[in-house]
Amino acid sequence: MHDLDHRLLAALRDCGADPRVATIARALSAGGEHGALWIAGGLGAAVADRAQRGAWVRGTALTAAAHLTSVALKRLVRRPRPTRIAPLVRTQGRHSFPSSHATSAAAAVVACAALRPAGGGLARAVPPVAAAVCVSRLVVGVHYPSDVAAGAVLGGLLAHLGRPWITRPLPPVAHHRPHRKSLRSPSPPRPPVRPKGRPHV
User: Fold this and answer.
1) Degrees, nearest 5: CA angle 167-171-176
2) What are 147-199's pLDDT values in tens digits?
3) How far is 121 from 99, CA to CA, in rounded Å?
4) Cβ within 8 Å of residue 179, ≥6 positions away
């Protein structure tokens, strides 16, 4: 498995020898850093889609939580990044398993799929962009294929578990009728009642 990881990584890293491929891979890697691409897209969709605003916000929060989970796992596993090849980008940390880029990308795919058909074009555009972000981490030479695969599984699983939370219906809003004030004028005060009987002389 280790040898296969190295061979696949070397083959994809060789693709980065093309300056055009390297430029695209760098841009995709930069966009996926800290899940920024998915968080910005989710919040933008929440602003544009008022009917599904709560669902977009919850999906974005779930994607961010998946990213943070992968960062915590990296500190536990502590697998070093590839060292046999020269990377094309600088990295935020020394550990590579699982790929946080792949984790947030897969979580975003599942979260957007939960919003179909309300997600519209954005939900259809996310999967290919997410796949490109995952591959970019191999082209720039900072992850093994097993890092990316594990990150994608982790992100997809976490988002799938949180899917009912994303799509939960909003509670019905109770409509209260305002109290109408009486428009009738107040009754005039009644005169005091005099006791009946003969007056005293």
Assistant:
1) 155
2) 999 999 999 999 999 988 888 765 554 555 555 555 565 666 666 666 565 55
3) 27
4) none
